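lol forgot to send this yesterday, sorry. struct tokens for the thing we talked abt
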């Protein structure tokens, strides 16, 4: 059994804050400052360039990749850390297209995060506009998977509504039609159990600064299924994905398996933060996390719906059909969220009208859920949101 009292004690949340935005940026683990201090002073400071060997920096992307891999059901040796999620989307997509050379259509949906779509557009342009990015409504994805599709590029959990796709079913359908399936797990990794190997995802990508708590700008991860690992073409052919980086060959030869998905010098300090965050995850069972996440999200939905009739639930009620966040719509969503944040309840807003609440059982409990619902009800009952300082949009919402 996961001890959620213990996990909660592993985070340093500001006093009086109820943090419901760990789906966007996870909070600081208490052990991270000391680990970073050590990485700075004892590793970088003392070891200088020797640290690449003596501190194991060069092997960190694979070592931490496997620890993230456990959380997404990946067989060891097939997940690596590096770059940003947008870059990993580009890598996965270009490799997948190369594995389906006779097909020209990339299928995604209108619930996907824009960066994934923008990366696809950029890749298509680079490839001479020979490909089509086909976007359908999320509920139409299954029917849109036909023999034309080269690859499906789908984010499992919708960043706005929390709606969750049926990953095994869509992957199976993609394979029946000869397509490959890329899964973006940005809102799944650390949010719910994922089984990339069992469910036969061809590629999976995600980030570590959301539910995994590795800090702002922490690197992404990529998983490549074992059957593709040595065939996937690394289009971003950087020297650390080379078979022998320190031979300094003039020509590129792809490294073995997942190593080829590395590009350049890894972000050692940010990986030290990831390592510390993963120490917490090592003591979390994903089934326990899911059970508690569903209990807390159900509780939040019930409390808000009972007391805030002007909010419309945007998240599916069906437990299987959602991730670990709850979203509501309101025309004044932005100002309401600002008023909530002013009271120490931190969620966020996504245009045009969505209030998002990430519910992460590692550090959120029943009392937080009840208090957050209380604040929300009070703000709506008294129109406390209707003040100029709450209506003024900031750059990051
Ligand atoms: C958060 C998120 C991203 C962000 O990509 P970065 O390159 O890390 O900024 C991309 N895709 C999805 C689905 C996301 O949720």
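and heres what i got for the seq, position by position
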């Amino acid at each position: 059994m996961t001890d959620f009292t213990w996990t909660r004690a592993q985070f340093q949340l500001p006093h009086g804050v109820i943090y419901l935005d760990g789906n966007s940026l996870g909070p600081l683990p208490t052990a991270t400052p000391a680990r970073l201090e050590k990485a700075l002073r004892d590793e970088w400071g003392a070891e200088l360039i020797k640290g690449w060997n003596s501190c194991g920096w060069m092997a960190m992307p694979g070592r931490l990749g496997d620890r993230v891999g456990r959380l997404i059901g990946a067989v060891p040796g097939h997940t690596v850390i590096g770059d940003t999620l947008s870059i990993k989307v580009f890598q996965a997509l270009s490799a997948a297209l190369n594995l389906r050379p006779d097909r020209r259509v990339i299928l995604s949906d209108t619930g996907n995060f824009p960066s994934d779509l923008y990366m696809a557009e950029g890749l298509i342009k680079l490839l001479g506009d020979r490909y089509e990015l086909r976007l359908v409504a999320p509920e139409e994805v299954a029917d849109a998977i036909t023999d034309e599709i080269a690859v499906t590029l789908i984010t499992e959990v919708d960043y706005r509504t929390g709606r969750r796709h049926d990953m095994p079913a869509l992957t199976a359908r993609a394979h029946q039609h000869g397509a490959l399936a890329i899964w973006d797990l940005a809102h799944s990794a650390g949010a719910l159990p994922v089984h990339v190997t069992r469910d036969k995802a061809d590629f999976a990508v995600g980030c570590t600064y959301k539910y995994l708590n590795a800090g702002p700008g922490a690197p992404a991860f990529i998983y490549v299924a074992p059957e593709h690992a040595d065939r996937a073409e690394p289009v971003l052919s950087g020297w650390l994905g080379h078979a022998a980086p320190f031979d300094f060959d003039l020509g590129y030869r792809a490294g073995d398996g997942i190593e080829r998905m590395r590009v350049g010098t890894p972000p050692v300090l940010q990986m030290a933060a990831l390592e510390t965050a993963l120490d917490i995850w090592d003591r979390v069972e994903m089934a326990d996390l899911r059970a508690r996440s569903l209990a807390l999200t159900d509780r939040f939905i019930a409390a808000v719906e009972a007391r805030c009739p002007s909010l419309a639930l945007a998240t599916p009620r069906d437990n299987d059909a959602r991730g670990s966040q709850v979203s509501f719509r309101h025309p004044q969503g932005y100002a309401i969220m600002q008023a909530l944040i002013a009271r120490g309840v931190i969620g966020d807003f996504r245009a045009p009208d969505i209030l998002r609440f990430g519910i992460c059982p590692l550090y959120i409990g029943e009392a937080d859920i009840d208090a957050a619902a209380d604040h929300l009800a009070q703000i709506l009952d008294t129109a406390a949101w209707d003040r100029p300082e709450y209506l003024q949009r900031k750059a990051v919402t």
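The first strand starts at residue 18 and ends at 19. anyway ping me if u want another try
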